[in-house]
Design the sequence.
């Protein structure tokens, strides 16, 4: 299987953690839906990017392709140097476990596992030892401020606490990129602020973060905003002058939404 | 993913649905339990019957008239019981058989027809007594007193007969026998026996009252002998008791003798003299009981199949309910085989749980059945091992399809589910 590294980081000096090239994705549901149409995108290592667009524009589809949950109909996707298109289930599962950290809108913790077991789950599948798993998970929960909730189960936690557990879980295997799909969609504004601060913190400590949102206020915390509409990238808006740049194929004018 | 963690997660999911899991396990318990019950009970009955015969008549060779079409000596014991009552063995046969090398004694046995037995004014209806010779009683058979003497007006009784009267009999008492033709004879009770060395069928009879009389003078059955016009005494059964370890050669010699015996001459053309050693009879009984046990146990296996369907059903439900969880696990790196392993472990645990609980349950019920049937309790270890293996196999087998379905869950679809 080709593990070709797309080493040529366009226009920037930083190597890309994620490269998406001319990706198309259709869904067959009643009629044929084009979820993504010729999308190209490159996320430099350590970058903080927001994907913004109206509902149904293809944001989640893009995230799922980068996360190896889904495969493109055409085009290429690579994460941490590993190609995800055209690979087998096992390779993608491996990448999901080691290179990707997912944070979902609906938290998606396993209800019967405790917080620490939930955080340790990626390590379980990555064959870490029991003690090491627990130590790592406990430390991460401490980092997100849940050091005193290690053995609580999700039903015993508030929405914000659950999302913090999910963030800790996303970091468990020290992934190349953290993908967050509307992480504040199911929590109130104040709690959402705490969750976003955690994501900011991840970026500050060097993680590559890709955040999907439909709220401009949320997207503005990132370095760049990728505007998506009808399955295509409409433009990239740069918010910090000194940030590593990211490239898109159909070089946009940087249009405001 | 390591097995211990797989176990922990599987146990947790099973316990999340306690009642449902318990009912599923119950289905397997019933299946495994029935297999154990029937197998154990069958083995117990077999062992009891075999040891009963083996102990009392290990060196015996039984001669009875047998139908040729019933397979003669190869037929199942008890086949042609009606034939077996035909009196054909003459005193000459008994003498000739006794002269075979290695024969310890020969016990002829026949039926003395009675209408009743009285003791101290109390009459008990008794249709028959056994007419035989003193040789019928081995050292172990007499529990009190002694064997009767040939030609004497004496009787030996069994325990049931001893206690059949208002006043229990004891050695030295006199009983009055009313013969079938109305004659009355007095006989002195000289001994109490718990069986005889003679007579194949007497091994199986219920332990009802039994009287043993010396064939001289009580046994009157005679046939027109091979010499015209001369009536000779004839018995329907003869038991040849061989010296220990001589049974095989003696049986061969007996078989060689039978074609020239009076019995063979007296029997109609379609009958022959059946010769069976204890070993052969035990073998036949074992075979029949074994077949019966396998048949009934086979039916019990059906209930195990039902238990397996229960596991398959509940595991499928579990996969459907937890589709989203499967999606989450896949999103954080679970391989298809990890998911498969989780669900297989769950179903295997249900099956193993059923086996582990089914074995004691089955054993207790089987034990109760052996008590009820008054036979000793014999463990069918091979069937117990079989039950455990089958329990695990049933769990894994029943879980295969659901687990495969779980492994194939598309994470995208799973995460889109509510
Ligand atoms: N698994 C799927 N099956 C069918 N259609 C889908 C699926 N996922 C997404 N879609 C469709 O693709 C389009 C883009 O969806 P999505 O990426 O979820 O949008 P967003 O996250 O921006 O709201 C929508 O029209 C949606 O209905
Ligand atoms: Mg979405």
Sequence:
């Amino acid at each position: 299987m080709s593990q070709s590294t797309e080493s040529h980081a366009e226009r920037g000096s930083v190597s890309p953690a994620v490269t998406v090239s001319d990706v198309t994705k259709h869904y067959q549901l009643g009629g044929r839906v084009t979820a993504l149409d010729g999308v190209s995108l490159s996320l430099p290592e350590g970058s903080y990017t927001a994907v913004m667009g109206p509902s149904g524009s293809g944001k989640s589809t893009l995230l799922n392709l980068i996360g190896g949950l889904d495969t493109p109909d055409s085009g290429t996707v690579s994460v941490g140097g590993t190609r995800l298109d055209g690979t087998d289930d096992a390779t993608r599962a491996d990448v999901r476990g080691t290179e990707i950290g997912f944070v979902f809108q609906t938290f998606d913790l396993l209800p019967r596992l405790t917080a620490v077991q939930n955080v340790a789950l990626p390590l379980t599948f990555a064959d870490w030892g029991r003690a090491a798993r627990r130590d790592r998970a406990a430390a991460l929960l401490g980092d997100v401020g849940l050091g005193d909730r290690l053995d609580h189960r999700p039903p015993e936690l508030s929405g914000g606490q659950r999302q913090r557990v999910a963030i800790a879980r996303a970091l468990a295997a020290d992934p190349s990129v953290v993908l967050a799909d509307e992480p504040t969609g199911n929590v109130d504004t104040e709690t959402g602020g705490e969750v976003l601060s955690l994501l900011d913190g991840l970026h500050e400590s060097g993680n590559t973060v890709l955040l999907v949102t439909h709220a401009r206020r949320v997207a503005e915390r990132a370095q760049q905003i990728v505007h998506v509409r009808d399955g295509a990238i409409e433009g990239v808006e740069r918010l910090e002058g000194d940030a590593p740049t990211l490239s898109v194929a159909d070089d946009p004018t940087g249009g405001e939404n | 993913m390591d097995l211990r963690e797989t176990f922990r997660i599987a146990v947790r999911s099973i316990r999340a649905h306690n009642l449902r899991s318990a009912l599923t396990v119950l289905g397997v318990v019933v299946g495994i339990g029935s297999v154990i019950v029937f197998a154990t009970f069958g083995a117990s009955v077999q062992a009891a019957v075999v040891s009963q015969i083996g102990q009392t008549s290990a060196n015996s060779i039984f001669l009875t008239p047998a139908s040729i079409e019933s397979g003669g000596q190869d037929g199942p014991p008890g086949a042609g019981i009606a034939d077996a009552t035909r009196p054909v063995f003459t005193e000459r046969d008994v003498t000739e058989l006794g002269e075979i090398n290695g024969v310890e004694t020969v016990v002829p046995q026949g039926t003395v027809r009675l209408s009743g037995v009285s003791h101290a004014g109390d009459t008990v209806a008794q249709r028959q007594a056994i007419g035989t010779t003193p040789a019928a009683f081995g050292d172990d058979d007499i529990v009190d007193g002694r064997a009767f003497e040939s030609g004497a007006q004496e009787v030996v009784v069994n325990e049931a007969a001893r206690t059949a009267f208002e006043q229990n009999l004891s050695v030295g008492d006199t009983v009055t026998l009313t013969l079938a033709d109305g004659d009355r004879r007095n006989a002195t009770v000289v001994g109490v026996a718990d069986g005889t060395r003679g007579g194949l069928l007497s091994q199986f009879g219920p332990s009802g009252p039994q009287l043993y009389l010396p064939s001289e003078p009580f046994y009157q059955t005679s046939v027109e002998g091979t010499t015209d016009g001369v009536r000779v005494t004839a018995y329907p059964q003869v038991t040849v008791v061989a010296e220990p370890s001589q049974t095989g050669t003696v049986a061969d010699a007996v078989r060689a003798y039978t074609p020239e015996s009076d019995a063979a001459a007296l029997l109609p053309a379609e009958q022959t003299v059946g010769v069976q050693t204890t070993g052969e009879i035990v073998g036949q009984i074992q075979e029949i009981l074994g077949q019966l046990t396998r048949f009934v146990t086979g039916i019990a296996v059906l209930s195990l199949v039902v238990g397996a369907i229960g596991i398959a059903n509940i595991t499928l439900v579990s996969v459907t309910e937890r589709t989203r969880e499967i999606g989450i696990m896949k999103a954080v790196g679970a391989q298809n085989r990890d998911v498969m392993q989780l669900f297989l472990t769950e179903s295997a645990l249900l099956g193993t749980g059923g086996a582990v609980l089914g074995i004691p349950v089955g054993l207790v019920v089987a034990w109760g059945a052996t008590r009820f049937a008054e036979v000793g309790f014999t463990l069918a270890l091979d069937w117990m091992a079989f039950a455990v293996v089958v329990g695990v196999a049933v769990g894994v087998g029943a879980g295969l399809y659901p687990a495969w379905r779980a492994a194939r869950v598309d994470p995208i679809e799973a995460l889109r589910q509510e």
Residues 1-13, 249-257 of chain A have pLDDT under 50 and may be disordered.
